[in-house]
Amino acid sequence: MMKEIKCTIIQDILPLYIDEIVSQDTKEMVDQHLQHCEKCQKEYETMKRKLYIPAENKAPIIQKLNKTWRKKKVIISIASIFVTVLILFGAFAYAFYYETVIPYSEDLFKVEKQDDNQLAFHYFGESYASVNETHPMTFEIDGEKRNVSFIFYTKTMTESPSRNLFNNEKRSNEQKYTFILVESDKIDAVYYVDFDVEKVTAGKDSWASILERAELIWEK
Ligand SMILES: [Zn+2]
């Protein structure tokens, strides 16, 4: 089987061999010949370079693809920067504008009757976003008519009372925010509770049920 094949025959076949359109038998025959024939090997290398990379044909397509891909990459980068900025802005906006209710705690809130009979409301937290307060409303509590004021404070993430956990500041007990409750001469009791006036107006909540879940923090 292993007859010596002439180099000219091999070289005639080489273009087909390089293009991989020869039969398995032919391929093996050329393989074997190339292994021991330096001359055909050289021919093969030269031919392969010429045949395999037809510079004018294939290169532009590859370059074009690369350009398109590069453009896509740039668009993707810009898109991801945009998304990142949006996420950062979202987090920023959330931290600064999204208000949550500061839960009641004895060390944070205190009502105090001043010498002038006004009711002072103290907040001992770091800071707050808003105070929500009602005018005194009349309720019948244990058979007695009482004028009740509701109040709650909100914070944003940047104003969290627990913020000092993160920045190692010691809260001074002296520091407080104080204001005088509206119509404080009429108030019999002050309750801390989260309420939404719009819900009450819309009939989804009532002052009676707000009173039920409220925390009494001061009474006459
Ligand atoms: Zn040869």
Report on the structure:
This protein is 45% helix and 21% strand. It has helices spanning 7-18, 24-36, 38-52, 55-97, 164-167, 197-201, 207-213, and strands spanning 100-101, 109-113, 119-123, 130-133, 137-141, 144-155, 177-180, 189-192, 215-219. By secondary structure, the chain is α+β, with helices and mostly antiparallel strands. It contains seven helices and nine strands; from the N terminus they run ααααββββββαββααβ. The longest helix has 43 residues, at 55-97. The protein folds into three domains: 7-51, no CATH class; 55-97; 103-219, no CATH class. The N and C termini lie far apart (118 Å). Strands 1, 4, 5, 6, 8 and 9 form a six-stranded mixed beta sheet that branches. The site of zinc ion has 6 residues, from helix 1 and helix 3.
Radius of gyration: 42 Å
- Output the helix-strand order: HHHHEEEEEEHEEHHE
Query: How many DSSP E strands?
Result: 9
Helix content: 40-55%
Spatial shape:
rod-shaped
Mean pLDDT: 82
End-to-end gap: 118 Å
What are the segments in which pLDDT stays under 50 over at least 5 consecutive residues? 166-171
Number of helices: 7
Largest sheet: 6 strands, mixed
Q: Tell me the domain tally.
A: 3
Tell me which ligands are bound. Answer: zinc ion
Strand content: 15-25%
Query: What class, by secondary structure content?
Result: alpha+beta
